[in-house]
Design brief:
Chain lengths: 237, 237
């Protein structure tokens, strides 16, 4: 709890908190982007935000490719597109198998339509941000466990989230995609990425075609948070 | 670029942007925490911030354990402590091998001292947030590549970063740790986490003992961002 001495600072924090929560609660995936260029000063703030993110051992083992060259963007889009189509096919089959109701299917189809638009027009987005990371610079503590590793993401996706929040603050639309990983070798060959580096996240950004950001509906703490042990609801009533 | 019609919104975004960048640029790792309890309403906002984060296919495949029980916190601390000691030993040897200069070694020792404090007092932090995730609910696109997988983190660490930014806004100190993964089975047994779930990030939080947050020094876009292809500096001069 803040001491009395801290009071001045706390007032500032409250204002900042309101602004932060407004941004976070409206950071919707925006998949319909205008081709208008992004000014360098805006892009610089988005990239700086990414750089402020924490990384394991403060090694900052990631880099971000700011892809604006039309041919390279189209090259990435051509790699992405068939993977998106495969994913849609899979997602629709999974929904049928899971017996999703009509409302849930309709919501899924709206997301698919937006994703179709992104896949069709990814090459026209003004900027593709491709986050890459070097596993050799990371201490990945779950690399040897008998399950798929995830810990490496802690030194990259913190930066990705910072960049996306900055996009939101700057009025830019964005969405985090990872389907290109299925054909990582092709992406690396296209963009001169060294063998030892991994491609982690592809974030197309641009000013929204429509309304862009807005309220999001996601499960809140009553579903996502547990008290002390897995499965015990939070807060304890 | 915003249209004239959007002008009013843009004014708000500029204010929010300033607040966001102030928070991000001062989100230092805080490892010296006071044992004072965190009010439920503050904790609720931190947890809500995590829940707003994007996840692949919007499946929200993570959960967070809010550990406040003293015995359980001490149990986690006991698992963490020897792993921290092993890590420090490794980090010191690596610095010698890398021929780090005196200033860099001194900076490392300051971080180690703060980490020693965290390891010694982790059980006294008012709250340990343990983020867990279910790989079966994720489409991990790099799981079959011939390198360590990282993409799973994109559906968890976005939430972790949101929670840490919220901690910063609320005046709470925090730091992202992953060393417990070396002994994940013990953590899972202690907290009743099902076999199929993975433990991804452990974030001790509490009000700072000292100044807490403050300016951070990390590499910026001139080092971290590339233009179009890997290795080409951004912005193009």
């Amino acid at each position: 709890m803040p001491t009395t001495d801290d009071h001045g600072d706390r007032d500032i924090d409250v204002e900042e908190g309101h602004a932060l929560y407004e941004l976070m609660s409206t950071l919707r995936a925006v998949r319909r982007l205008r081709p208008d260029p992004i000014p360098d000063d805006v892009l610089a703030r988005v990239l700086q935000a990414a750089c402020w993110a924490p990384t394991g051992g403060n090694t900052q083992p990631w880099r971000v490719l700011v892809v604006t060259d039309p041919e390279l963007k189209e090259g990435v889009a051509e790699i992405y597109r068939p993977e998106w189509e495969r994913y849609v096919d899979f997602a629709r089959k999974r929904s049928v198998a899971a017996g999703l109701d009509a409302a849930a299917r309709a919501a899924q189809e709206r997301t698919i339509a937006a994703g179709d638009h992104l896949a069709a027009h990814m090459g026209e987005a003004p900027v593709l941000l491709l986050f890459v990371a070097d596993p050799a610079r990371m201490a990945i503590t779950d690399a040897k466990l008998d399950r798929v590793s995830m810990v490496g993401g802690a030194s990259v996706d913190t930066a990705v989230q910072n960049a996306m929040l900055a996009c939101r603050a700057e009025g830019l639309g964005c969405t985090l995609t990872t389907l290109h990983c299925h054909r990582e070798d092709e992406v690396k060959a296209l963009l001169d990425i060294p063998d030892s580096w991994a491609t982690v996240a592809l974030v197309p950004i641009g000013y929204p075609k429509g309304r862009g950001h807005g309220p999001i509906t996601r499960q809140g703490p009553e579903t996502m948070a547990y008290s002390d042990r897995f499965g015990r609801s939070w807060p304890v009533s």
